[in-house]
Structures are given as structure tokens and as C-alpha cells.
Design brief:
This protein is an alpha+beta fold. It is built from five helices and five strands. The strands form two sheets. Strands 1-2-3 form a three-stranded antiparallel sheet. Strands 4-5 form a two-stranded antiparallel ribbon. A hairpin with a 2-residue loop joins strand 2 and strand 3.
């Protein structure tokens, strides 16, 4: 039995947005595993607590690519707190839904975003400047 995908899912699969990586990313999150076949890596660039750029690389099925693509569109321009409120259900709903067996793809998109934001916050806690790629020197 073939799975039914919405036009939005097919569009984001065939024409993914924000593919690539950010060399000087403020935060990077990687989720998934090679055994299940879906791996997502999300890069965020943060300025003044706002996600000003976001890119992704996904190895996986069409739904994984589509949810990664859509999630990046949804968070660009949001504050970190606003971005953390984006749920896997919101990602799936914005694509017109996903087959139940593919909902885990939207979970990976949410988790990759959250992991990238956590990476950014961890860098700040360590006294690093995630926007410059070097440590902050206190005199």
C-alpha cells in the first residue's frame, strides 16, 4: 500500500529549502541514527537572541527531508524561546499532515532544532562566543 503525501510534503522533498551548512554556526544539533536510516543535522546562526539563519543536512526518506526543510522555514526570524515552542505536530500540521508511520520524522526535526539551540546555550555557559567561534576573554 502506497503512502499518501500532501502536496506540501512533496514540494519540500523535491525543492528543499535551506539545505547546507553554516560554517560559523552558533549552534549545531545532530539527531537520529544510522540504524533507522534518518539522520538530521541542523545549523543555526543567532544574533541578539534571534535565529537569523538556519540550514540543515538530512540523510533519510522524503518525509525526513520535507520536515527538516519546513522546520527551518518556521524558525528563521524567531527568538530562541519562540523557536523552542515549535513542536513536531506544528511541523507536520504545516505540511498538511504526515502518514502516522512517518511522524517520527517531524520528531527528529523538532529534536535537531532543540539540540542546535542547546549547543548554542552550552557554548555560552562555557564562556565561548558562539557567534565568533572563539572564547570570550574577560579582563
Amino acid at each position: 500500500m502506497a503512502m499518501e503525501y500532501t502536496e506540501q510534503v512533496l514540494d519540500h522533498f523535491m525543492n528543499p529549502r535551506n539545505v547546507g551548512e553554516i560554517e560559523d554556526a552558533s549552534g549545531v544539533g545532530t539527531v537520529g541514527n544510522a540504524k533507522c536510516g534518518d539522520i538530521m543535522k541542523m545549523y543555526i546562526k543567532v544574533e541578539n537572541d534571534v535565529i537569523v539563519d538556519v540550514k540543515f543536512k538530512t540523510f533519510g526518506c522524503g518525509a525526513a527531508i520535507a520536515t527538516s526543510s519546513r522546520a527551518t522555514e518556521m524558525v528563521k526570524g524567531l527568538t530562541l524561546d519562540e523557536a523552542l515552542k515549535i513542536t513536531n505536530k506544528a511541523v507536520a500540521d504545516s505540511l498538511g499532515g504526515l502518514p502516522p508511520v512517518k511522524m517520527h520524522c517531524s520528531v527528529l526535526a523538532e529534536e535537531a532544532l532543540h539540540a542546535a539551540i542547546q549547543d548554542y546555550k552550552d557554548k555560552l555557559e562555557r564562556g565561548e562566543n558562539p557567534d565568533a567561534g572563539e572564547e570570550i576573554k574577560y579582563v
